[in-house]
Design brief:
- This protein folds into 2 domains: 12-130 and 258-271, Rossmann fold (3-Layer(aba) Sandwich); 135-246, 2-Layer Sandwich (Dihydrodipicolinate Reductase, domain 2), CATH 3.30.360.
- Helices cover 31% and strands 24% of the residues.
- The protein contains 10 helices and 11 strands.
- Helix 8 packs antiparallel against helix 9.
């Protein structure tokens, strides 16, 4: 379905940082008109030539710029880059008072000074739900008192391979015959140990009781072919248990197919005249 632009209103300008499995899918969906009232105007990547080739087939080819330039090109920046370059993208956006949609939410936990900076510049940092379920429930419960939040992440071993926590602790998941608990700790610790794998833990923590009180377990499970996220919340307004089984991305098994769709859903929420959910 092609998007319609309301009369007399300029489209919201969208920029995408990073054109990997998620970024390129979002770019294609925007080019197909999946979000009303927006226009993909620019993309950025460290490899400019590769980025130009990636977007050449789009109907409306966006401008290709270097990462630090992107903040001046668009109203909303979707950051699909690795955690290692998070600050390079996020810093200029927040400094310019723009809107940032970061997917490397784990990296945000180490750069929370950007939230304070955003208060001063008028910037907004909006975290897409991503590959988890029930953040609206968590936010609602957090209005009252939450006693406990736990996340159990189960992934096929190949989706965890190379994670810093596994490397640092010499944990080999390449030839498992049964599920193995590879991590148990806080969301902050999980975010540092699995920066490409458990952005859901960081998103959950930000929606609820923070990264130091949110409890996380990470399992490598050779018997599954989905990324499974199970959340349990105990609060003064009730208890909730929610499980989501995500199909891994074909291009990147560390993430799920739904992540790019979550970005589109977030952009629709920002531009739609009707919003369902808290």
């Amino acid at each position: 379905m092609m998007s319609r632009q309301p009369q007399g209103r300029e489209p919201v300008r969208i920029g995408i940082a990073g054109l990997g499995a998620i970024g390129l899918k979002v770019a294609r969906q925007l080019d197909e008109g999946c979000v009303e009232g927006v226009s993909l105007v620019a993309v950025a990547s460290r490899d400019v030539d590769k980025a130009r080739s990636a977007v050449a087939s789009l109907t409306s080819v966006p401008r290709v710029v270097q990462l630090p330039e992107l903040s001046s090109q668009a109203d909303i920046i979707v950051d699909c880059t690795p955690a290692s370059v998070f600050r390079e993208v996020a810093g200029p956006v927040v400094g310019a008072g723009g809107t940032l949609l970061p997917l490397s939410v784990a990296a945000l936990l180490d750069h929370m000074d950007l939230v304070e900076q955003a208060r001063a510049t008028g910037a907004r940092i909006i975290v897409p739900t991503g590959a988890i379920i029930g953040l609206d429930t968590v936010r609602a419960m957090a209005v009252g008192e939450i006693e406990r939040v736990t996340l159990m992440t189960r992934k096929p071993p190949r989706g965890l391979a190379g994670a810093p926590h596994l490397v640092a602790n010499h944990i080999d998941v390449s030839d498992l015959k049964e599920p193995l608990l590879v991590f148990k700790g806080t969301a902050r610790e999980a975010a540092r140990g699995f920066p490409a794998n458990v952005n859901v833990a960081a998103a959950l923590a930000l929606a609820g009781i923070g990264p130091d009180r949110t409890e996380v377990e990470v399992w490598a499970d050779p018997g599954i072919d989905r990324n499974i996220q199970s959340v349990t919340i105990i609060s003064d307004s009730g208890e909730a248990t929610m499980t989501m089984k995500n199909i891994p991305s074909d291009e990147n098994p560390r993430t799920g197919r739904i992540v790019a769709n979550s970005v589109i859903a977030t952009l629709r929420r920002l531009t739609s005249p009707l919003i369902a959910g808290s």
